[in-house]
Amino acid sequence: MTNTPTPHVGAKLGEIANTVLMPGDPLRAKFIAENFLEDVVQFNTVRNMFGYTGTYKGKRISVMGGGMGMPSIGIYSYELFNFYNVENIIRIGTAGSLSEKVQLRDVVIGLGASTNSNYAMQYNLPGTFAPIASYELVRDAANVAAEKNINAVVGNILSSDTFYCADKTANEKWISMGILAVEMEAAALYMNAAEAGKKALCLLTISDCPLTGESLSAEERQNSFTQMMEIALEIAK
Known about the structure:
single chain; alpha/beta; Rossmann fold; five-stranded mixed barrel; 6 helices; 10 strands; 31% helix; EC 2.4.2.1; DeoD-type; uridine phosphorylase activity; Nucleoside_phosphorylase_CS
């Protein structure tokens, strides 16, 4: 008896590549497959969380939506790591800037992912776990960004369980600790990778700046995200 297909991924073993690019939006996964990959085969439609496998410059790569929030990406990344032999997951998403160091359209490479989530409670650890990315993927992403003259900043991000937070002082507290940007998935991804002995990275494009009220239009977001996608595709193994 095999563990595939899983309740959330309809693929058979072998249909998913070693590296999966994971945007939150399944339609963005479709956009990447149609615009960057060749010889594309769709491996998942369950819950409309589209997944595709194809090639990029001769490399076999998969791309699949991961949904919003840590419970969602937690399910998908767990099944990919543990049931489909996926070795690397690169989250490619959006974030809000919490630092003057990162502006609209900049790329943030999430070296670490602080969080207000209780996701780590399941491990019953005798202390506080620090979710971090794969150094190899961080290094490669920074090098590719430099080669392509893409403004990319490496540092600590916040993975938040709340999009609308009742504590209106929360951002100020995270800013005081040097957090670059806020998103909602990376910490769970990093923890799943650590437990499975696999590699993970979160690449983010700054789509809005809560401190100034600036934000990108839908068209501007799509154009800006192309740089982040190119970094992820180049470092995929």
